Amino acid sequence: MKPRTLIVEDERAIRLALSGLLRREHYEVEEAANGEDAIARVEGERFDFVLTDLALGSGKSGMDVLKAVKAHQPETPVVMITAHGNEKIAVEAMKAGAEDYVPKPFDNDEIRLVARRCLEKTRLARENRELRERVERAFGFGNLIGSGAAMQKVFETTRKVAETDLTVLIRGESGTGKELVAQALHQESARKSAPFVAVNCAAISKELVESELFGHEKGAFTGADARRAGRFEAAHGGTIFLDEIGDMAPETQAKVLRVLQERSFERVGGTEPIEVDVRVVAATHRDLEADVREGRFREDLYYRLKVVEVMLPPLRERTEDLPALVTRFLDEVAERHDLAPRTLSEDALARLAAYPFPGNVRELRNVIEQAAVLSPTERIEAKDLSLPELGGSPSGRPATPDLTLPFSDSKRDAIERFERSYLLHALRANRGNISRTAEAIGMVRQSLQQKIRELGLRSEDWGKD
Ligand SMILES: Nc1ncnc2c1ncn2[C@@H]1O[C@H](COP(=O)(O)OP(=O)(O)OP(=O)(O)O)[C@@H](O)[C@H]1O
Ligand SMILES: [Mg+2]
After folding, report:
1. What ligand has the least distance to the C-alpha of 311?
2. I want to staple 239 with a disulfide (CB 3.0 to 4.6 A). Which of 186, 203, 206, 350 is the partner?
């Protein structure tokens, strides 16, 4: 296909000379005799290169044409033709994104060269973008990486439902990327320039959750000294992400159900119904079916939420994604810590593939990050990976249980051993910082502190620095 160029020049003789010159270079050439005409074309058609005179008579100028190109096709290079002695404006044009400028009087070779250079640039930029898109299509979606069939299916569903306003329920263990899917659903939708509001239903106390979600009127309860808008209102036009919805109190569940059914609600202490246009995305790591059976989660809400369900498989069931994930995380750490790029040995990869990753991708990211920073060499070996022993023997066969104990006691002991070992490792990996550990393993900070107390863990145990 011939490259498409646009020539914007009010002086007919010069315009014809330029277009003749570029046609002889075998480009497709379009012409505009004034700024208005040029801007209209730029808004509606794609060009590979725009050559514009700076002064275009009385109306819009070459600067306006430049702005229109940058707004509608930012990849397209623009070259300014400037009158002799107008270098100051030329510099301004360059600052505004022009590729180059050619002072009048110009000679033909100069124009030919600048056009060739610009078109080469366009071609490279386009090739680069296409390549990136191809890689993204093959291995990722939004900020999610996944080369295997399971994740590809997730991406496909996500892409399809993103354009709709259907309610989506994202499920999966902790650290499998539920929040990233929620963000991708928003980013790939027509709502992307409106807010994405995430609410962690497990982190807000039962007393505050309704005011948080729906807002409150002045005087609705002690301490409510001013009217406040809630998160549903804040998300108007965009997406609300109800994270950990399985942990929501039953009374709140009823109110959320009503919003899903009627798209309206009242502020706490208010009577006036408020209507919002929000897309609801929810996530949970819980077994909602069991919660419904046992009366902890409303069945009607459950069905309202799971109009579309996105299931994120645990990392141990998709080890085929490990190489792509590891590569991404190694690149990220190298960049963040200004390190030489690290690689992972085959043995180390095999070790990762054998480890069950209870904290899923989040845990993998932490393990990789830690190994990359601490590894003495550029190649990370299996021994550089700090992976907790999750009960059982190193051979992978479960340790022989103590059969003199009743099952329930034995199970409690095993869980406690696991919790102790897991938390100690996690705390050590995060240098004893409770907030960071909680974030890294997907626990609410308060729950982590509570666990630490329950297990009687002390900072000497994990060696605070
Ligand atoms: N497919 C993926 N590709 C790249 N990174 C991922 C992927 N999945 C998860 N991650 C990484 O793991 C981190 C945790 O992901 P996310 O917060 O989406 O998990 P989650 O399922 O919401 O976990 P939780 O239930 O604990 O809230 C992300 O910040 C990201 O670094
Ligand atoms: Mg999450």
Report:
1. 1
2. 186
- CATH 3.40.50.300 holds for 4-132: no
Same CATH fold assignment for domains 4-132 and 148-313: yes
Top mutation candidate among 176, 243, 367 for ligand 1, by most atoms within 8 Å of CB: 176
Sequential pLDDT tens for the chain (465 residues): 889 999 999 999 999 999 999 999 999 999 999 999 999 999 999 999 999 999 998 899 999 999 999 999 888 999 999 987 778 888 899 999 999 999 988 999 999 999 999 999 888 888 777 766 666 666 678 889 998 899 999 999 999 999 999 999 999 999 999 999 999 999 999 999 999 999 999 888 878 888 999 999 998 888 888 999 999 999 999 999 999 999 998 889 999 999 999 989 999 999 999 999 999 999 999 999 999 999 999 999 999 999 999 999 999 999 999 998 998 898 888 878 877 778 899 999 999 999 999 999 999 999 999 898 888 788 999 988 988 876 544 444 445 566 777 787 777 877 887 888 888 888 888 888 899 999 989 899 999 999 998 888 888 777 644
Ordered by start, the domain boundaries in the chain are 4-132, 148-313, 316-387, 390-465
Structure tokens at 120: 């080469």
Q: How far is the CA of 184 from the centre of ligand 1 (A)?
A: 12
Confidence (pTM): 0.62
Task: Answer whether 175 contacts ligand 1 (Cβ < 6 A).
Answer: yes
For tokens 């070992």, the residue is 421
Domain 390-465 belongs to what topology?
Arc Repressor Mutant, subunit A (1.10.10)
Of 332, 31, 358, the closest CA to residue 176 belongs to: 358
85: CB partners within 8 A, 6+ apart: none
Report the CATH fold assignment for 148-313: Rossmann fold (3.40.50)
CATH class name, domain 316-387: mainly alpha
